[in-house]
Amino acid sequence: xxxxxxxxxxxxxxxxxxxxxxxxxxxxxxxxxxxxxxxxxxxxxxxxxxxxxxxxxxxxxxxxxxxxxxxxxxxxxxxxxxxxxxxxxxxxxxxxxxxxxxxxxxxxxxxxxxxxxxxxxxxxxxxxxxxxxxxxxxxxxxxxxxxxxxxxxxxxxxxxxxxxxxxxxxxxxxxxxxxxxxxxxxxxxxxxxxxxxxxxxxxxxxxxxxxxxxxxxxxxxxxxxxxxxxxxxxxxxxxxxxxxxxxxxxxxxxxxxxxxxxxxxxxxxxxxxxxxxxxxxxxxxxxxxxxxxxxxxxxxxxxxxxxxxxxxxxxxxxxxxxxxxxxxxxxxxxxxxxxxxxxxxxxxxxxxxxxxxxxxxxxxxxxxxxxxxxxxxxxxxxxxxxxxxxxxxxxxxxxxxxxxxxxxxxxxxxxxxxxxxxxxxxxxxxxxxxxxxxxxxxxxxxxxxxxxxxxxxxxxxxxxxxxxxxxxxxxxxxxx
Amino acid sequence: xxxxxxxxxxxxxxxxxxxxxxxxxxxxxxxxxxxxxxxxxxxxxxxxxxxxxxxxxxxxxxxxxxxxxxxxxxxxxxxxxxxxxxxxxxxxxxxxxxxxxxxxxxxxxxxxxxxxxxxxxxxxxxxxxxxxxxxxxxxxxxxxxxxxxxxxxxxxxxxxxxxxxxxxxxxxxxxxxxxxxxxxxxxxxxxxxxxxxxxxxxxxxxxxxxxxxxxxxxxxxxxxxxxxxxxxxxxxxxxxxxxxxxxxxxxxxxxxxxxxxxxxxxxxxxxxxxxxxxxxxxxxxxxxxxxxxxxxxxxxxxxxxxxxxxxxxxxxxxxxxxxxxxxxxxxxxxxxxxxxxxxxxxxxxxxxxxxxxxxxxxxxxxxxxxxxxxxxxxxxxxxxxxxxxxxxxxxxxxxxxxxxxxxxxxxxxxxxxxxxxxxxxxxxxxxxxxxxxxxxxxxxxxxxxxxxxxxxxxxxxxxxxxxxxxxxxxxxxxxx
Lengths: 480, 480
Description:
CATH topology of the largest domain in chain A: Spore Coat Polysaccharide Biosynthesis Protein SpsA, Chain A
Number of domains of chain A: 3
Largest sheet of chain A: 6 strands, antiparallel
Radius of gyration of chain A: 25 Å
CATH superfamily of the largest domain in chain A: Spore Coat Polysaccharide Biosynthesis Protein SpsA, Chain A
Structural class of chain A: alpha+beta
Strand content of chain A: 35-45%
EC number (chains A, B): 2.7.7.13, 5.3.1.8
Oligomer: homodimer
Domain Nucleotidyl transferase (chains A, B): 5-294
Keywords (chains A, B): Isomerase, Nucleotidyltransferase, Transferase
Domain Mannose-6-phosphate isomerase type II C-terminal (chains A, B): 359-473
Pathway (chains A, B): Nucleotide-sugar biosynthesis; GDP-alpha-D-mannose biosynthesis; GDP-alpha-D-mannose from alpha-D-mannose 1-phosphate (GTP route): step 1/1
């Protein structure tokens, strides 16, 4: 039987601001080991037995960025498909879209494995074993959850009560789902032994899932069918992408798969697991990935300390000094610094809400912005000038474009550029430069096999991103 | 009688790191009102009655920077002189050098007023009144201290015990100086009423001071005479600078004027003052210059808060977010962030010691470095490239120079540049650029009347400051 891991890459991770941002969310954050969660998740999924393809449900703005990560994770060996959402619409919608798609391509007997893009699983072989058990139960017609055996009385997760009187091969029938408990209740759950953390990972036979949706959440299924019928499919070699129609998708009920289906169905099972799972739900969870020193300090970056203990600092490129403080989280990024008490790590999300309310960019973007062709980083802005570092991927090309109000100086510091500047076309080698006058059509391209790095100095009276006229764009972007 | 304010600009202010650094010490720090202490001190000094000139004793590395500040403070109206130290040698040496110099130029009856460059005085007219009283006592042959009436039992200052049985016109004879007391003793001093904070400001008749040095610290005076005889004098219109001979100056005893003289002399008086004095001795003192909000937070910069109180943040250009923290000092600069508990503000100096021990630049320099001709700021460094913003003052010129290993691209973003590039000389207007090949002699000059701002992109295999050969330099700097 075919297995299709479905990576759900939806959330922003606003409790991990300022590193996690809307345009660079939690799955893309670098961990102390130099990898990110989405690469780890992809590799873990692709390594399972019997994988037909890896499907990803994500925001359409993250499509190119996600593809890049999979490429870096060695993704060429496995077929990939993408469901591209115009906006997040909760998990029932995402799971139902995936199910209908997979039923069409692989038939009702195929199995889907729902994974979160932003969870960490340390014991990958235990995970693979749990998947084997879950597939067996799914084949028998169960909707299978992965229940994490609790290590402490966590109050931030929902729990699954396993029905110990109904053992199944490799798991149990589920008695009920319970909401996040208070501490006292969580302690009782821990003592009882048959309560498990709800990890949000699932395994389904596609046909069973569609049937159960039909039975318990037919409104979701109907709206998703309508959305798919109006959506755009693009197909390539071992690659499929469906861009969901925004208007129809906006009509899908905004509900989680837990509420819509799992808590209602009578066919729910759980596979209890010890797989070293963490949802990296806050800076406290993140801090545990860095080893503590003798004073309980965990530092990812250059930190100097005078009588400070039990702090976590993440700072790349800038020095941090701590004097006489304890139990703090300090996270430093090029445009924002967070200082939070460890006991209040959950409240970081309130800062993100404030930024959104104020219309502040810092919830949305980093100084480095991803584009289909590479990245740009604004190094400095001042009156009448702006300086960017532009990295163009091998073979990639920016659109043929023109600016009315700004001139641009380009200096190649690494790699080779092919430049169209007005009527001329030229190759610029490392250490060479050119000047694009305002009003001149131009295009930048990397014809080489290594990254092209160039410094762009813009000068002019108006330097905003919206002063651009695009004439041709290989990524299908319209002007504006 | 002539009055010569002598501004002592010696200390680094390591408790105000990371804003205060060796090459940009406390007197140059911007206060929330947009001014700095050295400008305030200069203006306050120059505004006094009967000022013949303003003398400044400072490190020779800070000469141009200090002159720039005085120019901005409208310094053209008053004659200036500078004593340039090769290194700090405590206050007895600095005061004695000033005294001997002033005796030579103005004679024994001239009066000198010793001021610290890094103290804040809020009530300038009360200060001017106190100076009038002090001059009267100085004329009678007293060594006059300014005693600040204590507002609370401070344990960080030395105290002066006024002899209330010996009132003088405008002050008292001093009974004794006392070291920093413990809290209990400080409370007794406050209650007693005749104990005053030792502000480190003094007023002397030059001849009296030299006599007293002769009597109590003739070793200091002798070594300073020797230093002056070997030092270099440069004179211009209403301008005099003496560069002290390093070898001779190193032989002067390392002792404060308080120990060497004031605590020994029988001719010491004090003028009690209420002048709104603060030595801005720590980030706590600095924070009080910014108004508190309803939660006791004082913010100089863009700050977002979720349930945080009694914190101080200084951050220019970057967003700071505080979550659930209290009584913290957060100071953010382009290359370093400080997070300290308010009760431990004094301990910030230990971070500076650590930086020095580790040979880390962050105790010494900011990203923006002052030069006689203007400033440069390193915006970004990477493999094979470095980007600087260079500001050249009107009329100023960099040396004619050459680099072996790097090419430089210059782009003018504001103002006008005169450039020598190998055999050619040209004018570059705003938005124009040029390219200096490695091995080519070049010179950059600002022929205009506004600042020249340019972006320099260096590329090459070796980009350190020591790859420079200087051919001609109007500031007399040798190569290296």
